[in-house]
Structure formats: structure tokens, C-alpha cells
Amino acid sequence: MLIEFGEQSTKKHAVVIGAGFGGLACAKKLRKSDVYSVTLIDRNPYQLFSPLLYQVATASLPEDDIAFPVRTAYREVQFVRGDVKSVDVNTKEITLSTGKTISYDDLILAVGSEGTTFGIPGVAEHCFQMKSVNDAREIRRSLLSTYESVEDGLLPLESLNVVIVGGGPTGVELAGAVSELQREIKREFEHIAPKATVTLVEAGPRLLPSFHPYSSKYTLKTLTKMGVQVKVGAAVVEATSSSLRFKDGAEIVAGTRIWAAGVVAPTHWKFLGETDRGNRIKVNSNLQLSDSIWVVGDAASFPDATGRPLPMVAPVAIQQGKHVARQIRRRESGKTLEAFKYRDKGQMATIGRRKAVVEMNSRLRFQGSLAWLTWLALHLAYLSGGRNRTSIFADWIWNYIVWTPRRTITE
Amino acid sequence: MLIEFGEQSTKKHAVVIGAGFGGLACAKKLRKSDVYSVTLIDRNPYQLFSPLLYQVATASLPEDDIAFPVRTAYREVQFVRGDVKSVDVNTKEITLSTGKTISYDDLILAVGSEGTTFGIPGVAEHCFQMKSVNDAREIRRSLLSTYESVEDGLLPLESLNVVIVGGGPTGVELAGAVSELQREIKREFEHIAPKATVTLVEAGPRLLPSFHPYSSKYTLKTLTKMGVQVKVGAAVVEATSSSLRFKDGAEIVAGTRIWAAGVVAPTHWKFLGETDRGNRIKVNSNLQLSDSIWVVGDAASFPDATGRPLPMVAPVAIQQGKHVARQIRRRESGKTLEAFKYRDKGQMATIGRRKAVVEMNSRLRFQGSLAWLTWLALHLAYLSGGRNRTSIFADWIWNYIVWTPRRTITE
Predict the structure, then answer these.
(1) Domain A117-261 belongs to what topology?
(2) A359 a catalytic residue
(3) What is the rounded CA–CA span in Å between residue B239 and residue B251?
(4) Could you give the CA distance from residue A308 to residue A301 in angstroms, rounded to a whole number?
(5) In chain A, positions 35-64, which contact chain B (CB-CB < 8 Å)?
(6) Which ipTM did the prediction report?
(7) Phi then psi dihedrals of residue B189, to 5 deg
(8) Which of A164, A325, B188, B386 stands the most exposed, by the fewest C-beta atoms within 10 Å?
(9) Is the pTM of this model over 0.90?
(10) Mean pLDDT of B235-251
């Protein structure tokens, strides 16, 4: 049963599917409307701060820190936990997998994206993805427990090796963090740990393909200096239970294999309209599919000035979420809709302790300590809850100043 | 394979089983010995700070905060993760369940205790225990996810009820914390949450039986005022999948049933010597079973002045662990062994926000805010790692001052 609330009879109803960056930004901006009541649906009762997922996977942060409880966040937003099974655009009704139905006047699709294996054999079975808290938890368990298994003679030494596929920001950040974790663990498993390796694999010609070549070069040099083996132009053709195989016949044996090489929108929503190669729904200049359906974030295919769809990153989702809320309110006041314009504030990736790359625009780029501090500050600023912000800040003080990584395995 | 370390040929070898309060205190004090090398064995690579387990169970603290990684703690102590299968006291050899064997010159048993159901039907199947991180995680999941299931109509309203069996400090602390969690959740599930109840059940005539009757009375009054239903003199005869049944025919229907009513030492070690009713091994005045085997903490049955075994609490374990380390070092310097004497520094239990009872000795007792601050300060002081201490301190500031409980369900 959906909790009925008094206003529903008089107010219009906006339903947001997905409590990620885009969905929350939209719900937050719409919640004080006198005309609309807002319902937010997600299968999890928290917003996952996925840019820091790699720190949970490498045991730097506890998982609670990057999961922001949405129920408590905005009192005016009705939260419903559930999976959406179908949408009837004629009756304007959503059906959840539990059978519960919810009517909407406006529907905002903010359903995000998921990892894709590109159909490469063995990847789904033998590689970790890194999209959810559960994924990060499994990676962390694999990274840490392998040392004990090897020490006990239950696994061969090569199991300590880690291979990460995908040279985008996620792969780069993960490779740097794994390398730092491996270095720290040397003190605890003195006899076996020095043998552990980490390899970062990219199919294209350079790391961070969406960045300026100079940033790619700096990243390659920095990772290499940290001991990460970087393999570019290397296409994976198969994953097995103990290795990755490449097109050129090479093979990397590794106990922990992480797939961070590609993200697509969920196919589930294709029935709503035309989609691009990444399953992203093509929207008009107002981010609309129809008068009453809006799409924001990773799930929306919206072209930039050159005609390529905008990247699947948090700033795009947040700006789009806010834009849709603004348009819904404009329409109610009888104003015309405005086209969405993305203000590109640049991009950044952290490589390791005191090392990052930042690109503010085509001219302003910087690397190293200053870039890393910028990265820290911006990530803290983007975190939703004061509590999570404090907690992560305290953890980072320990990680980066006191230098005691949190490294408990509690399962 | 056990990692060999150079000193082993020349040094004697002390093996500590169990990384709880007693085992760690002993290992820590013995680790700088020139005569002994120290190995610590535990099935988990962390010390569990069990006095705060109830805060993990009620979503106030993340589980990482109360799990202190032992590998990194003391460099001189060799840590082995494993389950001890058997001990051969003649050859002085321990066998782990993996088959690995470890020889010792001195063995320190610090194996702690576990929950007991007293053989009451249904308790093992239908009640949560609260001894491990996993137990706390399951309680948290049950407490939080029940609200969603009830809202979705998948569970009846009575599922929101919580019943806790055991009126000792654990039961009292848990009941208070559950009551505060239920009050906080009212804001999120306005229509169903006000129906939730929490009942604390004690078989004896009063709560906190080991405390002064005045403290029991204060605790009963305070819990009642907080909305906890307290049932004393109530013997559980059966647990079902939805309720607890009592000797007088009464029944309490509750979705979350927690058993905090009794703790015994593991039966696994009974083969070593004479045990008391709680499976605790009877030791001599030096805490010895034999020249080379020592027992500390919950696993040891050591009489107080009145002949009753000392309580199973952290201060006893810590003092005994240190005592054994001291005796081993005395013996090496040719000194005679000293009998163990427990210095009772009192006991305390927290009831809720700004409410606790503290008994320093038979004369000095206090309650309320001052007692609560004493409780906070002492628990922070007893935490092993600076990192955990900082992290819990930050969380408590949020919980008690900013009043935003951490309440993420990430699974």
C-alpha cells in the first residue's frame, strides 16, 4: 500500500525514478513546490556516492560513509523503496515489482547506468564489477582475504595479483588505490606481499581518453612510478577463473579481476523511446521524451555541441535534474520551456596520495598536489550529508596524514 | 605454511588463542620480551569491541568502527588467522582446522564466551544473538527493513515490535537504543512507525541483577519513561518465528527477537581440565591450568572473595591478560609467581541519551548525565586504535549533539 498523503488530492504528482545524482537533484528542487508533491523511487534507500566507491573497495572508507540515507534527507519527498516493473504512458501509471501502482502527472527517469561486459566471454562470471556497495564489498574481501589464503598455502602466489580493465577515471583511481593498499600490506605479510602486482589495462591507445593527452601522459608516468603495470592498446578477449586473455595471445594471471571498462544505460527502459548505442534514451532539447516524461543523467542521450552524447558523469546528471525541476515549475507558471545547456566545469581524476589531474577547461589544466587537494575539496563539497562529509573528512585525515588505512575485514 | 621468523630458533614461543580483551592485553605486554616471541591466533583478523556492538546493531555506528585490525596493531606479534582444532598438551602443539600446526612453550587461552539458549525450544532458530559483527548486522537489517516490508504490506504491523531477552547491561543498552531508533524512525514512516513497541524481558526479579538495587530501580524507571515495556520475573519457554511464549502463558508477538540472556564459555575447551557450570575452566591462583597453560578472561573460572567466579567482563579479562604476561616474564627472571587479584573498578551501563548508571564501588554510585559522560569517556579510552577512537568520537558528536543517527542499510 502506498501511504496516502493529504495533498495528493489537490496537488499534481511528480514521480522520480532513481535516487542518484540526477534524481535527487530534481526531487530536492521540486520538493517545495506548491503545485507538485514529489515521490522518489529507488531499489535502495540511499544515494550511493559512486565517485568514492573505489575507496570502499580498497578499504579506505567504510561503506556507510558513501551511502546517504534518502528517507531522512528531504521531509517533503515521499520515498518508496522498490523496483519499477513497468510504466503505462497512457494511464500514467507505474507498476512496481511488488504489484503496487503509483500514478504520476510527470515522470522523471533518472535510472543511471550499469556495467557492461560487451559480451566478452567469462567477464560476467570471473570479473568483479564496481557499480554497487555490494560490488565494492566483494572486491575488498577478495583483495584482503587473498593474502591469508596465500599465506595458508590455499592459493598460489599469483592470486595476489590484481588486474583492472578500463583506463577511465574509475580504473585509474582504483589502480592507484590498489597499489597503495598493496604497499601498506607488505608490512603485514612480509614474505608474500612483495610479490603482488597490479595491472591496469586499457583497450584504447591511452589512459583517461576523455582528458587532454598531457593528463594521460602524466597519469601513465605517475602510475608507473607507483609500481602499476599499465597496458594500453590491449583488448581482452576472455576472462577465466584465474586470468585475463588478450587478443595478442598474452595472458595475465590474477586472483582479483575488476571490470571497469564500460557503462551503459539499463535496457529495461528501451520500450519508452529511441535509444543510442549505450541504451541511452534520446530526448529533446528540454530533456523530454513527451510532455510528461523527462529523462536525466546517464539514462539520457543528450548531444553536446559536437553532436556526441554528454558523458555519463555526476555534474551532467545534477545539472539535468535541476533543469527538469525548473522546467516543471516554469510550465506551471505558464512560462515556455528552456532548452538544457550543459555548463562543463571540467573533469578530474585522482591517481594516488597527493597526485591527481584536473582539467577546468581547454586551457586550465594542472596536476600533482594542488590537483589532488582540489579533488578532495570538490568531493567533500559534493557529498550530500553533513554527517557523511564529517566522517569522510576524518577518515581522510587518517588516511592521508596519519597514514593508517582502515583495513578491517568483518566478514 | 607458518611464516618462520628468525628469532624462533633462539626464543621461547608464547601462543595466545583469542584476540579479545584478555588475549590482546597479554600479547601486547609480552611482545617486547627478549625471551619470548608471541603468536596470536584468532578466527577473525580484528579485535571486536563488543561493549559497543549494540550501537552497530541499532545503526548508530558503522561496523568498521568497533573492529580493530590486530595485524597492524603490534608489529612484534605474529598473527595467524584460524580456528584451533586441537591442542596436544604432551607435545605442546596446536593444530588448526586447516591442518597447520604450531608449537608452543606457553599457551594462553583467551577464547572468550558465546551466547547460550539454555536449551529453550526455538531460541536458536528464531532469535538473534548479539556476539559477533554478523549478529549485529543481522539485527540492524531486521530492525530497519521491517519498516519497509510492513509499509509494502508484506508483513503485519506487529512485526515492528522488538523483544529483547536478558536484563543485564547488554539487554538494557540494546532496549534503550532500540527505543531511540524507533522514535527517530517515526518521522520516516509516519503512518506505521508509532505502532512499534520494544519489550525488555528478564527472568529474575530485577534489571541489572549484578548492580545495586537502586541502580536497577533507576534503570527500570528510565526505560519505562522512554517507552520500553519491561517485564521482570518472566521466563521464556519457547520462541517461534513470530513471538516469544512465557511460562505464565503470555505471548509477545515481535518481528525482531533478540536473545541477550546468558553467556557461557565454548564447550570446545572442556577437554583441557575441570570446568564450572558455565563451561569456564577452573584455574589456580596464578590463572594456570598447568605449568605451561594459562587461561584468562571469560574462559577462566576464577573465584572472587566470596567464592563466586569473577564476572565475564572486559576489565577482568584485561587484568588477567596483563597478569599472565607479567608472570611469564617473572618466571623467566627466576622470580616466584604471584596470585592474581582482581581490582574491581566498578560497573556501568548506559540506558540512553544522557542516561546511564555507574557504580564505582559499594559507596560511590551515580546516575543520569554525569554517569553517561563517564560511560562515554571510559569507552573511548578503552578503544584500541586512535583511528577507531576518532571515528567513534565523531559519530557520537553527530548522534548525541547533532542528533542525526546513521541509518543506512547497504544490503
Answers:
(1) FAD/NAD(P)-binding domain (3.50.50)
(2) no
(3) 10
(4) 9
(5) 44-46, 62-64
(6) 0.77
(7) -125, 70
(8) B386
(9) no
(10) 97
